[in-house]
Structure formats: structure tokens, C-alpha cells
Amino acid sequence: VSSFARWSKWGVAGIAGYILYDTDSREWSVRHTWTTALQQYALYGFLRVAGHRQLQQLIADAERGEEVQRGLLSELLLRHQGTLYGRQQGLQGIATLEVFRRSHPVTCHGHYAPYIDLIREGKENVLSPGRPHMLAMTSGTSGSPKLVPHTKEVSKTFFQRGVMTAFGVLEEGFPGSVSELQRSMKLTFRAAQRELDCGLRVGSNSASPDSPGFQQMLFAYASPKGAYDLSNEADALYAHALFALKDRNLGIIEANFAPLVCMMLDSARENRRNLVQDLRNGHIWDRRVPEDVPQPELRQVRSILSHLLFLKAPLELEQLEFNFGVWGTGAMDEALIGPDPRRAEEALQDGVYHVEMNRPASRNSLNSLFWPECRNVFEYLASESDCRVVILSARGKSFCAGLDLTDPLNQPPSAQDAARRGLKFIDHVKIMQDGISAVELCLKPVIAVVHGACVGAGVDLITAVDIRICADDAYFCVKEAAVGLAADVGTLARLPKIVGNDSAVRELCLTARNFDSKEAHRLGLVSAVLPSLEEAMVQAKHIAGLIAANSPVAVVGTKKNLNYARDHTVHDSLDYVRTWNASMIQTDDIGEGFSASMKKTKPVFSKL
């Protein structure tokens, strides 16, 4: 017995140790503590296992659909025979689908209206055994809202056959999406409910911030309770977007209705400057005071949210980081991200923005979401007056492993007719090309910091930037020839002009062989090789700081004219720069530069 007890203790200790190790090795959201991380670890672990079982059950049921549906009908008929509706409709004598079809009419909600009225009066055993949990109001998307009895059995079925199955689908379709300890952006509002004289609740049955179950789930959500206390929908969406931006490891965007996700994304896009300003200052609603929120509530909620936003961290933060990924590991997994106060020591200089690819689990391979996202991000940075230079890097062990071939939307379009298939393919590739070209067309200089693998589409991407720096462990490969196609997203058009050695470029592209950082430096693909990624980032920040200190008008003009000269003759380029400077030389930056030079001080140039 004592030996068994001793081994049991060692077993428990071993399991606990593994759980702590496994929890620590996963990707955490910013506001997680060990307590909340372990809570999410336990919950999501259960949902992954249960979700897999429910998904397998659903697939098995679908394979024998008619048999399962007949069994379900028999079960429901038996359960409701003793209700008022069952007695009046003669459900006691119905046992098969065929008899049910002959005996029971096809109905609409109006057929049940008299029974709903009886339930509102407090009657039991009307449409379902016992008393319903509440009378739930439908959303009204296909007509006027209707009242429907909502029972605990319905809630149980929804959780088991709906929520759990959804987790199973997520884990199977997007491996790792519910394995990390990433909080979700949960979009929901207080459910409008009232209580009848009989004590029955009437209203929306959506998950409400007021419910005890929701309060217990706050550990899994990016937004704190204060964001859910806001009664104004627009301000609540703004607060949710703010905390989603703050969480660099945001997971899933979750909402009861898809339009709500679109509303939040539209709100984030429209208020992007205000969101960045609030993140920078640590004060929520710097942009305005909500007109319909009472001042005492505003002061309290604003204080809570601002405290959680920065947790008393220094305000010298990275100005902005857009995080590429799958909004499946993620939702806004994949696109917007705010600064993390824990990294305040890595503050970038004024005007230096940081774009970071964030699909480390797939080695930052480029999925179908990347192309429009990349274009949107760099078009935004091109128009952002605060931005003067951009650093592009990636998280994880590799810069980019190339195209994500597991994403079906990355595959060429299908069509029976070869010509139509070809036309669709042209549009398909154009989207990809435009995503990469947006980096080159961005008016602000872009510095790429490469480490680990930079393969295929990764080479396409770095050939579109202005300056390339890499860590010693970086290696490169124009992989396309080895997988059956010619590189069509930018490498073949840009690499020859970067390297300037036609023979070397043709060798690399035709052999599809790897070449290391030293060879890349020798060829001129990168301007510097540093011992590690950290040192490469330091060098990139130094270069970015030097660029950002110059006149933004001159920097934009220099990049614009360098790109033009690369693609045109010397004569055409001289004409172009002459015309360009005819207007640009009138800038106040020239006077500021000369004045600072005479005074031996640093010039202070205005924003673009």
C-alpha cells in the first residue's frame, strides 16, 4: 500500500510538472497570469478532446443520416407525448416518420402562438415537459422577432453538438488554433430581457456579460469586464478593438452573428488613428467623450480600462505593429496588433514602424489572407503621416517558408474549360502580385530583417523592400523551379536588378538550390549579416533611426526616384527627378535643414 501511495505521489507530481511545462511552452496572450493561463489550458484541453469526439460522432451520424434522423424523431415524439400539444395533436399514436408526415401538418410559428400565450401565463407541460428555462426571442433576420420556448435540454444540445463540434472543426481545419493560450475577442452585449409576472424570463438568449457563466469565462477573453459594462454599442466595439490590438497573441474573433465581426473590423479601420493614439498615450477615448454615457460611469470604466491597457508601464512604446496571421489561429490573428508594455525597452524611434509576420507554427508560410492583408497594411503605412520608415520581420524560427500549400485558396482556381481556368488564374496571381508590390510602392522605406528560412514567396517579399539585413543563420532559396513553376510573384522581375549578376541569378533560379547568408551578402542581396536575429534587429533600428531623422519629403523623393531610375533609362530618370524637384524643392524642410546645420543642432522636420 505504502509503495502504491509513493508511486501515486510521484505520478501526480509528474503530471503536474508536465502540465506546468506544457503550459509555459505555449503562446500566451498579453494579460494572462499563471492562474488564468492554467484555467484556459484546462478548458481548451477538454474542449479539444470533447470537440474531436463530437466531430467524429457528427461524421458518423451523417453517414447514416436517415437512420439517425428517424431515431431522433422517435425520441422527440416519445418525450413530448405527455405535453398539452402532444395530447391535442395525437402524438401518442405516432411512432414512425411516415405516420408523422400523414398526421401532423407542416407548421409555421403562428400555429404555436396559442401555446406560447399559455406558457407566458405560467402554464407548464405545454410544448415541452415541465417549464421552459425562458422564452427566447429570435433575432428577426428572416422576419419579425418571434418567441420560442428555450429549455435546458436545448442549451445542453447546443453546447454538445454545436460549441464542442465547432472546436473540433477549428482544431482539424486550423491545427493549433485552440492549442495555444491565446485569448479570444468575444463580441457580445447585455441581452435585453424582462421577467413576466409568472417569473419566466423573456428576451435574447445570447451569451450576456451579466450571466454567471460569462463572468467565469472572462479569463479566456482579451477584453476586461469594463469593456462589457459599456452600454453604447459603438464605444464597446472601440474598447474591444483596443484590447485586441493590445494583445499581440490574440486568438479567435468570436461573435454570435457574423455582421458583428464586420462592424468591429469597420470600426477598427475607421478609428485606426485614434486606436493607435490611445495605445500610445495609455488613455482610452482620447478621441472623444461618449455623449450618451453618464460621467460617473465613464470615469469609472475609463479608469479601469486605462489601467488595464498599460498596467502602469512606461509610455515609450513601439508605435505600431501589424501582425500577419490566420485572424484560425486567429482572428484579428492575423492582422492588427498593439504594443506590449513588457517590451517597452525595445521602443523604436519616432517615425519607425514595425510590421511583424506572425504565423510561427507554420514558419510564416503565406496563406490566402496574407495577400490582401499585406496590401492593406502597406497602403495604410504609405498614407500614415507619422510613419517615416518601416521594419519588416517575422516571429518564430523562420522568416518565411514560402507559400502555404495547405490553404486551398492558395491553389490555382479550377474550371472545366482551359481558357476560363487560365483567365481565373491571371486574376488569382494578380492579387498575390499586388500584395507584394504594395511593399515596393509604399512611399516609406522598408527594411527587412531576415532569419532562418527565406524560401519561395519569402524571396518574392524581400525583393520588394528597400534594404535587407539578415542573421547569420538565414538561408535563401528560389524554390519554384523545384516544384514545377516559374516564380511569378516578383523574384524573377526584381532579383536580377538587385544582384546585378545575371549568371548568378539564373543559376540560383534554375537550380532552386539553397544559398546561405554569406553568399547572399557577397551577391549584394543583403547589405549586412549579423550573428543573431537580435543583433540584426538592433542594426535595422539603427538604420531606421538614421533614415527617420532626415527630411521625410527628401526620403520619399529619394525612394521614388531610385525606383524610377531602376526601371528607366538615365535620360528618362534625369527628366523625372528634374520635374519632381521642381515642386519638392519648395519644401520648408530645406530651410530647417540648413538652419540646423548652421546652429549645429538636430533638424526637426514636420510630418508628411
Automatic annotation (TrEMBL):
It holds the Pfam family ECH_1. Keywords: Acetylation, Fatty acid metabolism, Isomerase, Lipid metabolism, Peroxisome. It is found in: Peroxisome. One of its GO terms (molecular function) is delta(3,5)-delta(2,4)-dienoyl-CoA isomerase activity. This is 3-hydroxyisobutyryl-CoA hydrolase. Pathway: Lipid metabolism; fatty acid beta-oxidation. PROSITE patterns: AMP_BINDING. GO terms for biological process: fatty acid beta-oxidation. Belongs to the enoyl-CoA hydratase/isomerase family. It comes from Polarella glacialis (Dinoflagellate). GO terms for cellular component: peroxisome.
